[in-house]
Amino acid sequence: MKHLKEFTIPFVGLKVGKHLFDFEIGNTFLDFFEYDDFNSANVKVDLVLEKKSTIMELNFKAHGIINVNCDVTNEAYNQEIDNEIDLVVKFGQEYNDENIDILILPHGEYELNIQQYVYELIVLALPTKRVHPGIEDGTLKSEILEKLDELSPKTKDIIEEEENTDPRWDSLKKLLTDK
What we know:
By secondary structure, the chain is α+β, with helices and mostly antiparallel strands.
């Protein structure tokens, strides 16, 4: 995979201690990953890289707004996101990213590309079911919602059917409660 230069951190020249990095994520970043579930994005990612003598600790924090389509009505709305992940970078014989929290880089590496971690941070911040806030509070008016309401089963009919049961079944139900 090609790497975006702005997400490559040359850590070899950094002193031991904490270093702060800020990234503005927009549509071009999502277009690079060819992820089309988002309509648009305006997300700020803050990275705190703490370099120690043998390891590096990275803390990613993302907050912002992603414009997505509702899973119920397909109406576009702005979904607020807020997510955080931690990553530990160690050095070893060969590259290994099998563990979700630990990245092992080969000795002699001098830079780290974090674009995949930023991408996962944003995608995993979204809820699994995206529901327009107007549906939850009842303010959204749409043809799809009206059609869903029209086709949904009526609860009054179900209650009336339960009340109009055969009296023979009622006497059998009494046998269950007489135990």
